[in-house]
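Why should sequence recovery work at all? Because a backbone constrains its sequence more than one might expect. Tight turns favour small or flexible residues, buried strands favour hydrophobic ones, and helices have their own preferences. The token representation captures these environments compactly. In the example below, the structure is given first.
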């Protein structure tokens, strides 16, 4: 069970960057105005002597990964920074030699121990969730995969077969995957172009009347301006989850504005997704929402492609939130709840019919959950964490390679465009939206492709 391509970590280092948002983003009912980016560099060596440096990057999205309903914003962010620092140090000391997915499996156990230690040391009123640990350490996992590909002179997505992996997928998942490897669930070459889901946040202006003072910074500000500028055909709508009338009115208002704008463009087909960020108190709220959207003016119901995690992320604590009935109407996608294969199976048992893959949960998890979703015949989506720069390239690589992905969310260009500046010239097809799509054909280099 030894391959010449196996890698060992030689060194690891990191830095943090802070960027202010262009406009506030209301996330799960909480407005936020900035992000902290965690960047990681990892030096690796193969058994046969190849060396390379891998790079990973991701925002420390504490509002999503460790929400203020658990602990205050500043506390959760400080906890993530501490976990990040200690995890990089531990990674640099890791002497295991193997495939990146194997290294990830070993390191995850140690990262969770670090999170537990930080929770106790800081006296947090709620222990650091597993999701938060995954988000914090995801750049480490990405950097390991990136270094693995570069050290072996291949694109990392070409290193997922029996020729490179020491175990089949039954080792990580269950016996259903015996004799199967990750390469069966990814594309040999990336999709050349992928439609982009543009975020319509709860605070975002739909028309000029919603803007008391324009920014006048050269970027679109209203929904029609964004649609025309980027040729958008996919809109992700953030909803309240506790005010049915507002949620229904918001969707129908977006449909009215979009329909007028798209008609002027000669476009008759576009799509929505609805994201409640687990704020619905129960499934009945979602069912009533869907019924009212179907009854409302316009064609919003038919354009609605899927629903993102409507109810609480703690599936074990809320077994009453069964999604079977809702999933018969529209795909219902697990997002915040998905932290491992156990929660994947639990969500499936509770009626979820789709899976949201996120680069912020780690490259290894995205690959494994992408394989699991395909094997179990579930709907697949790739979601964002307001990822700018390299972190968005990482997300785009997953969307372009995992089979069954039809679109990708990407809102870094809306809320944090300044962090894209160093990357736009290197990968213009990814950061310059054309006909509502990003050009992922460019993500073919060694490592993760960028």
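From this structural description, the recovered sequence reads:
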């Amino acid at each position: 069970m030894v391959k010449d391509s196996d890698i060992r970590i030689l060194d690891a280092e990191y830095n943090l960057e802070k960027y202010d948002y262009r406009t506030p983003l209301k996330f799960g009912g909480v407005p936020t105005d900035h992000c902290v980016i965690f960047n990681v560099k990892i030096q690796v060596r193969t058994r046969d002597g190849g060396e390379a440096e891998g790079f990973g990057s991701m925002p420390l999205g504490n509002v999503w990964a460790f929400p203020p309903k658990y602990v205050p914003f500043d506390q959760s962010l400080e906890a993530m920074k501490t976990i990040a620092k200690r995890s990089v140090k531990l990674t640099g000391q890791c002497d295991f030699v193997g495939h990146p997915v194997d290294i990830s499996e070993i390191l995850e156990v140690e990262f969770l121990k670090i999170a537990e230690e930080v929770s106790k040391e800081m006296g947090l009123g709620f222990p650091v969730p597993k999701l938060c640990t995954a988000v914090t350490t995801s750049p480490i996992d990405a950097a390991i995969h990136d270094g693995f590909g570069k050290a072996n002179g291949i694109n990392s997505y070409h290193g997922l077969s029996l020729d490179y992996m020491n175990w089949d997928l039954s080792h990580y998942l269950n016996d259903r995957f015996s004799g199967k490897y990750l390469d069966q669930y990814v594309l040999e070459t990336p999709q050349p172009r992928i439609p982009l889901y543009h975020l319509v946040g709860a605070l975002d202006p739909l028309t000029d009347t919603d803007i008391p003072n324009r920014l006048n910074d050269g970027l679109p500000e209203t929904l029609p301006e964004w649609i025309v500028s980027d040729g958008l055909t996919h809109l992700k709508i953030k909803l309240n989850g506790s005010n049915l009338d507002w949620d229904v009115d918001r969707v129908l208002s977006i449909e009215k504005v979009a329909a007028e704008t798209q008609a002027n463009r000669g476009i008759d087909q576009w799509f929505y997704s609805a994201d409640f960020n687990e704020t619905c108190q129960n499934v009945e709220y979602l069912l009533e929402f869907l019924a009212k959207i179907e009854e409302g003016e316009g064609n919003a119901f038919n354009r609605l492609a899927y629903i993102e995690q409507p109810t609480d992320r703690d599936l074990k604590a809320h077994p009453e939130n069964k999604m079977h009935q809702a999933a018969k109407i529209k795909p219902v996608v697990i997002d915040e709840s998905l932290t491992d294969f156990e929660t994947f199976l639990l969500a499936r048992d509770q009626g979820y019919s789709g899976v949201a893959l996120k680069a912020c949960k780690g490259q290894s998890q995205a690959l494994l959950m992408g394989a699991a979703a395909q094997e179990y015949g579930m709907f697949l989506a790739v979601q964002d964490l307001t990822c700018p720069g390299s972190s968005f390239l990482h997300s785009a690589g997953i969307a372009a390679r995992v089979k069954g992905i039809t679109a990708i969310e990407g809102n870094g260009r809306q809320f944090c465009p300044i962090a894209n500046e160093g990357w736009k010239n290197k990968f213009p097809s990814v950061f310059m939206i054309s006909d509502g799509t990003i050009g992922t054909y460019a993500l073919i280099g060694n490592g993760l492709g960028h």
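A few observations help interpret the result. DSSP finds 15 helices and twelve strands in the chain.
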